[in-house]
Amino acid sequence: MGSRRPARNLVLMAAAMAALSGCGMFKRHSELECMERAMYFESNRSSRDGMVAVGSVVMNRVASRQYPRTVCGVVSQKNQFAPGVMTRRMDKRSAPMVREAAIAVLRGERHPMIGDAQFFHAASYRAGYNNMHYVLTTGGNAFYERRRPEHVTQPVPRPAIEGITRPRS
Questions:
Q1: How many Cα atoms sit within 13 Å of 145 on the Cβ side?
Q2: Which residue of 28, 102, 128, 147 has the smallest Cβ count within 10 Å?
Q3: Does residue 96 lie in a domain region?
Q4: Is 81 exposed, middle or buried (0-12, 13-18, 19+ CB in 10 A)?
Q5: In terms of Cα–Cα distance, which of 110, 38, 111, 25 is closest to 71?
């Protein structure tokens, strides 16, 4: 009887994990899926520039020692991206544009105005910090670098700009 109990517990645990994986709790995403999710949930999906800028921030974080070394590690960090970014359902209508932009960023495309920015917030949000140097507003977001206050030369979000990036044919 004692030898059956661990096997039974193992079977129950496997069944519970299988059930949870169906709700996304243990689903493993590819780097492409994680990039798509960040772009989809963090940008105005009608703006390729906004998606590429979000993807550029993700890649800047991947390159930094302060963040995880993978796209999925960066995107799934707690309180860094939209709530439910890794679990919420995405609308399939915008999937082709999101996928194209995600593939382009993973292949090396960056928004030419993003620089070293690792942060962004909704363009309508007004933060009261003195260390935010804004580099770009696009796709509904304002992108910025954190700098020492004396090195900030653009302390307010720039006017929105679209149409800088183009899909590759």
A1: 17
A2: 128
A3: yes
A4: buried
A5: 38
CA distances from 63 to 26, 99, 117 (A): 26, 22, 12
- The domain that holds 102 is classified in CATH as 1.10.10.2520
Task: Tell me the per-residue pLDDT of 4-37, one tens digit each, with 9 for 90 and over.
Answer: 566 666 555 555 554 443 344 445 789 999 999 9
- In this structure, is residue 165 part of a structural domain? no
CA-based radius of gyration for the chain: 20
* Integer angstrom CA distances of residue 85 from 2, 70, 95: 44, 16, 15
Nearest to 131 by CA among 149, 157, 150, 117: 149
Could you read off the pLDDT of 78-127 as tens digits, one per residue? 999 998 899 999 988 889 999 999 999 999 999 999 999 999 999 999 98
Half-sphere exposure of 104 (CA within 13 A, CB side): 23
User: Structural domain tally of the chain?
Assistant: 1
